[in-house]
Amino acid sequence: MSQTHRAEPAEDAPLVIDVHGLTKSFGATTVVDGIDMQVREGEIYGFLGPNGSGKTTTIRMLCGLLTPDAGEGTCLGHDIISESNLIKLKVGYMTQRFSLYEDLSIRENLAFVASIYGLKKPRQAVRETLEKLGLETRANQLAGALSGGWKQRLALAAAIMHEPKLLLLDEPTAGVDPKARREFWDEIHQLADNGLTVLVSTHYMDEAERCHKICYLAYGKLLARGTVNEVIRQSGLVTWLVSGNSQRRINRLARDLAGRSGVAMVAPFGATLHVSGANDNALQNAISPFRSDADLAWRKVESTLEDVFIHMMQSASDNFG
Amino acid sequence: MASRFSLSRLGAMIRKEFIQMRRDRLTFAMMLGIPVMQLVLFGYAINSDPKHLPTAIFVQDHSVFSRSIVKGMENSDYFDIVARAETVEEANELISTGKVQFVLQIPPDFSRELQRGAQPKLLLDADATDPAATGNAVAGIRILAEQVLNRDFEGPLATLKPQPDPLNLIVHRRYNAEGRTELNIVPGLIGVILTMTMIIFTALAMTRETERGTMENLLTMPVRPFEVMMGKILPYIIVGYIQAAVVLAAAYWLFEVPVTGSLGLLAFVLFFFVAANLAVGFTFSTLARNQLQAVQMTIFFFLPSILLSGFMFPFRGMPIWAQWIGEVLPLTHFLRIVRGILLKGNGMAEIAPDLLALLAFLTAVSIVSLNRYRQTLD
Description:
The structure holds two protein chains of two kinds.
Chain A: E1 15-26, E2 29-40, E3 44-48, H1 55-62, E4 70-75, E5 78-79, H2 84-90, E6 91-94, H3 106-116, H4 122-133, H5 148-160, E7 166-170, H6 178-193, E8 197-202, H7 205-208, E9 213-218, E10 221-226, H8 228-235, E11 238-244, H9 247-257, E12 265-269, E13 272-277, H10 280-291, E14 296-301, H11 305-319
Parallel strand pairs in A: 3-8, 3-9, 6-7, 7-8
Antiparallel strand pairs in A: 1-2, 1-4, 4-5, 9-10, 11-13, 11-14, 12-13
Chain B: H1 7-23, H2 25-45, E1 53-59, H3 64-75, E2 79-84, H4 88-96, E3 102-106, H5 110-116, E4 123-126, H6 131-152, H7 181-212, H8 214-220, H9 225-253, H10 263-287, H11 291-308, H12 320-328, H13 330-344, H14 348-372
Parallel strand pairs in B: 1-2, 1-3
Antiparallel strand pairs in B: 3-4
Helix pairs in contact in B: 1-9, 2-7, 2-9, 3-6, 7-9, 7-10, 7-11, 7-13, 9-10, 10-11, 10-13, 10-14, 13-14
C-alpha cells in the first residue's frame, strides 16, 4: 500500500502554508470553520473530505480568491489577506472545472498565461511546454476540443509554466481515466522532488495514499491529519474482514450487523464484508454471536483509509449534520 | 510589482479578446448585422411625415368648387383618394375599419353657401389615433382648400378671395429644409446602434468568463482589474468605430445626410461615447450572474435610452422629470452632438456642454465599475 511513497521531505523544511483558524461563511452556512493547516516545502499534501466539506473554499482562501471571515496566516511567507497579489505570482492553481479558454487554441491559451505572468521569454516558454506535453502537432487545436485527460494535462502545464513555488490542485483527476491519473501523479511526484509544494484535493483513496501527508475535512472542520498511517492509527478503528461461502449469507450478515451497538460501520467489498468499530471490546461483543458460524471466516485486519474516512464521515454527520 | 499597470498584460488581454471575438461567429455577425438591420429598419421605415394617406370623399354637392377641392387633394402628396362614400354610414365605416385615414365631407349646399359668402363648412374626418400620422396632412388641407378655390373666384366672385394677411410670416426650416425624417433619424442611429451593441458586447464578454468558469482562472493570475477592464473595453472601441463608419457611410451615400461639420471632431466625441457605453456594459457584467441577466439589464438601459433621449420623440415634448432622466443618458448628449456636427456644422464650442456631460457620465460609471469589479469570488 505504501510502496508509492517517495522520499518524504524533511520534518524541519520551512512551512509553505501556515494558517490558523480560517473561517468562511456564505450567508448562514459556515463552509469552513476554524481550520489550521501547516504544509512544509516539498510536501504533497492531500486534502480529503466529502462533497461540500469546504475543500474548494479553503483552497480559494489560500490563493486569495476568497477573503476569510476570520483567521490568519501566511502562504509562501506572505500574508493571505493583505498580500494576495504577491501570493498569486508564486502559486499555480488548477481549478476543479477546466478554466482555460475553450475557444482559444492550446498555443493561444499558453501564450496568454505566459504573458499574464510576464514571463521573460514567453514564446520559448510556450514552445517548451508544448514539447513537454507532446502537443506540438496539435498546438493549433481549440482547447475545448481536447479530451478530459488532455484538458487536465494542459491545465497542469499552464499552472506550472511560471514555475510556482506552490501548486494548488482542486480535484485534478475527476473524470480522468486510470492510466492518465497514474501519469498525472507520477508528474506531481516529480515536481515535488524538485522542491515544489503541492496541495491536492481528491476523492480517490489510492491518490490519498500517494500523498506525503493528508488531512480530512468534513462539514468545514478538520477531523484528522498526518501521514496515512498516522490517520489510520489515530482513528483507533478496528476492522474485521468477513468472507463467506455465499454472497447471500454475506448480505444477510450485513443486515444483521448494521445498527448493532459497537458496530460503527458495515461495508461490503465484493464478496467480503468490512465490519468496523471504534472500540475493540464492544465490536468483539457485537460480532461474537456470528463468529461461530461455519459459513463465515473472520479475520482481524488493519483498517483501510477508506474505512477510516467513511467512519469519520458518518460520525461527523451525527455530530454536525 | 504585481500592483503596477503592465502594458504586456493588457496586450495579452486584448489579443485574447480579439481571438475570441473572431471565433464567436454569432457575435461577429451581430457586430455588422445590427447596424445594417437597424439602418434599413429605422432609416427607411420611420417617417414622421407620412404621405399618400388613403382618403375617402363624401361629396353631396356637385359643383365646380367641389371638383376643384377634390382635384386639389388628388394632386397633393398627402391624400390618395381611394373611395367615394355615398352615405354618412359608409363614410364612418371606412374610417372605423381603418380602410381610410381621412374622410372629406362636402355638404349639399356647399357651393350655394359659398357664393352667398356664408362661410360653408367643409368637414375633414381624420383618424387621429396616431396624431403624428395625420398632423401634417391636416395642416396641409387648409392651405390647399384656399389655394384651389382662389382660382375659381373669378369675376363676380372675386370678392370672396381671401384677404391678404396683415403680416407676412416667413418660416425658415433650417438644417433640414425639406423636413426629411431620415436627416433626424439616421445620424441618431449611430448613437442608438452603439448604445445597444457596445453595452451588450462588454456585458456578455465579462459574464461569459464567469459562466464558463474562466473567471476563476483569471482571478488567480496576477492581472489587475484595470487591465481586465481595459482589455475588455479597448477591442470594442475599435468595433464601435467600425460600426459608426458603416452607419456614417450609409448615411452619406444612401440617405444623403449632409456632413456639414468636422468628421474628426465626430471621431473624437465617438471615443468618449463608446467608452461610456462600454463602461455601462462592464458595470452590468459585475452585477449579472449569467449572460441572460446581462442581456436583461442591457434592455433595461436601452429602452429609456431610445425613448427618452430624443431619438424617437421630441425631447422638448417630454415632461420635466423625463427630461431629467434623459439628461443623464449618454445617448441624449451624443444625439445632440452628432446632429449638431452633421446637420448644423457645429464645432467644439457648440458641443462642449454635451461633451462635458458625456465625460462626467463616463467618469462616474468607470468609478462604479472598477469598485464593483471583484478580485475575489466573494
